[in-house]
Design a protein that fits this description.
87% helix, mainly alpha, 2 domains, elongated
């Protein structure tokens, strides 16, 4: 075999092997069910709202303090 053909065969094997391996790894993943996805999404949303409220209150407090010293 020539060097070009060997290199081409190696590259084709790498590509096919990558996608085969990817498919096998994705089968091993433990995917969450609908109920868990909803629960985690709500927890994330509540956390974001709490953090937003914290920074809003902090901003309001700092603007009051700035107004007092202005």
């Amino acid at each position: 075999m020539t060097k070009k053909k060997e290199k081409k065969n190696r590259n084709e094997k790498k590509k096919g092997g990558f996608f085969k391996g990817l498919r096998l790894e994705l089968k091993k993943v433990s995917w969450p069910n609908k109920k868990d996805v909803f629960k985690y999404s709500m927890a994330t949303l509540v956390f974001c709202i709490v953090v937003m409220a914290f920074f809003q209150i902090l901003d309001l407090g700092l603007s009051v303090v700035k107004g007092v010293f202005n």
